Amino acid sequence: MTRSTSLLTLGIALVALAAAPEAGGQGTQETPPGTTQMAPMYNTTTESTIKGTVEAVEEVTGEGRMGGRMGGRSMSGTHIVLETETGSVEVHLGPSAFLEEKKLKLAEGDTVEVLGSRVTMGAKEVVLAREIKRGEDSWTLRDASGRPLWRMGGR
């Protein structure tokens, strides 16, 4: 093996290692300062159910790798701020177009129950929603392993 081949192999191995998920899935996942994380990883070991009242509904837009569009959907997502017994929690639901397809529309004052994964984005803890319930209505946004249904055709 030549030196340039060895260096290339080492470089590929380092990139693969850096991109690999955290071993063991312990706790929340943190984004290093000065970097951006497009989509935090869902972690089933940090799943919990939270209940509260919707304090705010926010549509967040961002430029994707495909000029702001991915799979025919815009790169806007819906987040809610949920007021719980222990304080406010930001909950990331999913792409706004997917939520419209699922007929999931939340408003300030709605009482909801969210099953989701607590993760850390930057210095902020957020919840990635897997299931959400409002009264008799319920929506599944991710499968049991946390894979987003919008990436799997809404199944």
Q: What does this protein look like?
A:
By secondary structure, the chain is mainly β. It has one domain (26-152): OB fold (Dihydrolipoamide Acetyltransferase, E2P) (Beta Barrel), CATH 2.40.50.140. Helix content is 15%, strand content 41%. The strands form two sheets. A five-stranded mixed barrel has the order 1-4-5-7-6. Strands 2-3 form a two-stranded antiparallel sheet. Strand 7 (124-134) and strand 8 form a beta hairpin. It is globular, with a radius of gyration of 18 Å. Residues 2-37 and 64-74 have low confidence and may be disordered.
Which helices and strands, and how do they pair?
Blueprint: H1 3-19, E1 47-61, E2 69-70, E3 73-74, E4 76-84, E5 87-95, H2 96-101, E6 111-121, E7 124-134, E8 137-140
Parallel strand pairs: 5-7
Antiparallel strand pairs: 1-4, 1-6, 2-3, 4-5, 6-7, 7-8
Which features does this protein show?
155 residues, mainly beta, OB fold (Dihydrolipoamide Acetyltransferase, E2P), five-stranded mixed β-barrel, two-stranded antiparallel ribbon, 8 strands, 15% helix, 41% strand
What is the number of helices? 2
Query: How would you characterize the largest beta sheet?
Result: 5 strands, mixed, barrel
By CATH, the topology is OB fold (Dihydrolipoamide Acetyltransferase, E2P)
Indicate the proportion of strand residues.
Answer: 35-45%
The count of domains is 1
The first-level CATH class name: Mainly Beta
How are the strands of the largest sheet arranged?
A: 1-4-5-7-6
The CATH architecture can be given as Beta Barrel
Content-based structural category? mainly beta
Fraction of residues in helices? 10-25%
By CATH, the superfamily comes out as Nucleic acid-binding proteins
What is the mean predicted local confidence, pLDDT? 76
Output the helix-strand order: HEEEEEHEEE
Shape: globular
